[in-house]
Amino acid sequence: MAYLISILGSLNMLRSTMLSKGVITGLLVLTSVGGANAALANEAAPISNAAVSHSSLALAHGVALQAGDQAHVMSDGMPIHINVVLKMRQQAELEQVAGLVRSRVRQPLTDRELAARYLPDHGDAMRVSNFLRAHGFSQIYVSKDNMIVSASGTAANVQSAFQTRLYSLHRGDKAGVANVDVVQIPSSLAGVISAVHGLRSFQERGVSGAKVATIIKGHSYGKDKGVPGAQSSAGTVACQECVHAPTDFPSLYGASNLAPANGQAVAVIGVGDQRNTTYLYQTWASAYGFNAIPLKVSYPTGYTAGDYEAQTEAVLDVDAVATMSGGLKEIDFYSAPSTDLGDELAAVTAAINDNRSTISLSYAATCDADIGQDLRRSWDQELSVAVAKGFTVFAITQDYGGKPGCSGGESSTGFPGSSPYVVSVGASTLYNSANSYSAYDHETLWQGSESGPAATEPRPHYQDAVASVVGAMRGTPDFVMDGDPNTGLWIIIGGYDSTGTYQTQWAVYGGTSLAAPLLAGTYARLLQSGIPPYFWQKTFYDIGEGQVKGIRGDCINCYNLLTGGSNGAYSVVPGKYNQASGWGSWNAGALATGMQFQR
């Protein structure tokens, strides 16, 4: 039986509309394939993928509908936010330079060196800006490195500029925009534009890695303020698999042996309206007697007022960074207008351009196998700049376990956590000792932590020592930190009730979204201790290999190698690097000493 197309309204009317206007105006639900009605199905599919004008260049094919899809062509006035990525100069050479920097062979590049040889020209960025403005786009932002031009417009503006109509598409549990036709650019910009993002958000959308606890152990609520009750620091404790106060984590991971990171700044990448984040953070810090770290919020490419959907993720990230750092010069929060990975990339780019040497990213697409190669290239292009500058991005693998349902079962890790230019972070279940909530006992893998090989990224050279484990592709994660929600962190969250009153409450959260900022905050302490801000992957792997083989006396316990656990696809191999948990978690004090010997 052929594609069975269920259409709201008359099928004959739909067909005549398609023939007369060249668009699809009804709702399409494709439910089966094969057979006699194939011609009708072909009429409903994208119709302009074959012909591209001689004066234009095709950048991306149209999205073909599949069985079960629900789609309709977006009306002309529907709002769209896009990010146009420009081509770098000498990209291959820059990747080589980045490799030398992360191998400690050469010093990081300066902004002047990058601009002189590698970054796009400002004149080219302005040509793209003028092109978008001529086709009706507004709110146009050009990144400081001229790499990304972001703009807001409508579906009609997209069709005018890039010759493609847009679907509103639901496919399984994914929903968003999909380009109907080939995405085209003028041939005059062929040497300038690398990709246009924002036109396939149905499969290129990041997801928060924050998960709320279902079990709360080891704490009681204070009756007066609802603040979590105090924990005993010695003697018999209520549990070993406990939720934790922020005062626990630095001791559990050895960071309390290092000075607070008061001279460092950490960048956190988030989404949406963050006007309440500072208040929630300051309330949380006050409850625990902390001096609040200055929190600077910026919106590099705009935002939608009242979009508080990502508020809890933001608070978790900021609280976790503050928890592990012990104090910072500032936390810089870069908020994207949406979770589309093109918007997230623009926010990361802004942090890199502002020379933030430590960046925490808690959004990822759960299946890197489903990410288009053009988006991969755009991220790797910008992230290679970060590495060449000596900056470190901590990115999550995601929270859907070892078999999250990726297309074709190709991969079980998240993107951009699969990039070779980030420190890829998974999540563990953290156990304190029987005598203290803040004394480390052991860790196992949290079952929700994603891991595994990248879909298309080849194994980077720093993983050659573990090639027998990861194979030919980049293995993830590199490290884990606590992320089991039931051993997670107390935070304060907020929201508006039906009367418009802002309400706050205590809650416990975990997920890989806890693990990445915990690691970023710990790294800030390492930098404060005198470790220069390099992308330290080669060093990280050298230290791990030396610890496992017992050949480096200065780092016999730098990493807490996990004792067990599985995510359904990969299992921990106790005492060794493995595909489930990488090198385990950090013992920060010992690691700082080990890294000093590696310099």
From TrEMBL:
Residues 243-598 form the Peptidase S53 domain. The keyword Nucleus does not apply. Its cofactor is Ca(2+). It comes from the Bacteria. Keywords: Calcium, Hydrolase, Metal-binding, Protease, Serine protease, Zymogen. GO terms for molecular function: metal ion binding; serine-type endopeptidase activity; tripeptidyl-peptidase activity. GO terms for biological process: proteolysis. The keyword Calcium applies. The active site is at E313, D317, S513. Gene3D superfamilies: Peptidase S8/S53 domain (3.40.50.200). PROSITE patterns: SEDOLISIN. This is Peptidase S53 domain-containing protein. The lineage of its organism: Bacteria, Pseudomonadati, Pseudomonadota, Gammaproteobacteria, Lysobacterales.
